[in-house]
Amino acid sequence: STYYDNYDEAVCLPEVLLTRQPPKEKAKAAFVVLVRNSEQEGIASSIINLEDKFNKNFHYPYVFLNEEPFTDEFKAAMTKASPNARMEFGLIDKKKHWGYPSFVDESYAAQCRERMGANGVMFGDKESYHHMCRFQSGFFFDHPLLENYDWYWRVEPGVQFFCDITYDPFLYMQKYNKLYGFVVTLKEMPETIPTLWDTVVDYAKSRRIDISLKGRSLFPFFRDEDFHGNGYNYCHFWSNFEIASLNLWRSPAYRDFFNHLDQTGNFFYERWGDAPVHSLGAGLFLETDQVHYFEDIGYQHDLYRHCPSKESGKGCRCSCPVGTSKESIDHDNYYDTCLPQWRKWVKTSE
Ligand code: GDP
Ligand code: MN
Q1: Residues 19-59: pLDDT tens digits?
Q2: Could you tell me which of 282, 158, 288 has the C-alpha nearest to residue 213?
Q3: Quick check: 309 and 251 in contact, CB under 8 A?
Q4: Predicted TM-score (pTM) of this structure
Q5: Which of 31, 33, 35 to mutate to test the pocket of ligand 1 (most atoms within 8 A of CB)?
Q6: Which of 19, 95, 31 is nearest to 62 (CA)?
Q7: Distance from the alpha carbon of residue 308 to the mean position of ligand 2, in angstroms
Q8: Coiled-coil annotation: which residues (predicted)?
Q9: Domains in the chain: ranges and CATH
Q10: What ipTM goes with this model?
């Protein structure tokens, strides 16, 4: 198979110029996959696809996590999906990281789930979804199997990658001082997070974190201009794809932030997602230029797809589905994309 040398960026050389040398350098990085045994097929297809587009040349390991033990059948299916990749299968500490903390009223949480179900809050009535969001927000980076890594790439069942990725995104992040990378930015459903924004703003005040426009903070990107910056515009980075620093979430600052959010119980009484939590956390603790938009990575999760445009000159040998589709969120008029806001924000903060 063809190896692509460590290009600094997604520069697409013609096939004949590609080196057959394996990459010389490697980051302390792994794919992180939280998944259930029942999602075996979906995650196998993600892995086969990712190996083909990227990892056959780069050989990063996979860390699978689950609150139930992985079955032998599941493990065998993963090995079959990528026979040469190193894989580790980890159990989540159910009591510490997938259970109710003492300060949460479980019967009130059950009432809230019922109410969210009646009100059509997406996944609000699903108990496991709350635990999943809380785990992804506050705990995954502490799993012992991730101890020796600095970077992760989150992978979910049933996702698709459309372009050859011919450079190492982890090394790119390292070199350019990035700590968080995304592909899709969208608006969150407001009914899932009624009090999140106010909680975060109060938190920032209590810790004297400068979230004003004057600082270099990412935070104002999330302010809603229509309300004079007093509310949330509901933009967030979609967390089913993330290439990011584990140490960002392991920092005392982020831990303090997560604990503050957790104490409210609203991972259970509301349906706070790990995507807005990560995004607003990044907002508090990162500057805009520490966040990277992987425009060159063609990607689809569920119904949302990003494909690098021809004009952008980004993405190598993409095989995106042809034709314009309402599913592609690259169009500026797509109803809940935050890409236009992102581009504008990056320009003004340069
Ligand atoms: P969505 O992307 O918001 O629709 O949520 P998903 O159902 O895809 O869940 C997000 C991620 O968490 C996926 O990788 C799932 O496989 C994983 N996940 C969700 N619920 C559970 C669960 O109860 N147990 C485990 N082990 N993984 C879960
Ligand atoms: Mn998903």
Answers
A1: 777 788 899 999 999 999 999 999 999 999 999 999 999 99
A2: 288
A3: no
A4: 0.96
A5: 35
A6: 31
A7: 21
A8: none
A9: 15-348 (3.90.550.10)
A10: 0.99
